[in-house]
Amino acid sequence: MIGTVVARPKEPASGYFGFFFAALGAFAILSVILVVLIVAVTIQRAKEARAGYTWQTDQYQNLSQIDPVSNVVIREQGEAFLTTPQRKEAVARAREWATEQGAPE
Description:
mainly alpha, 53% helix, 8% strand
């Protein structure tokens, strides 16, 4: 993205300015990408909250937690957050159950 900047002999500082503005442009592009991702995650969280579930492991204890692959509830709303081993076991059970039911994975 940032190319090599060659300065003319009579303008030795122009190389620094070119590099500065190239770096500034790269920073601006990355900033826009970051803002878009933050907005997308915020919209997804709001949709899930309205639907009454979440796939996030340590937020929204008042919502049921689902396995995002099988869409099976692995923690009911109000229950304590699952530890990593508990979550792995619950996800494995949920995916096994979904496979037995013929649900697409």
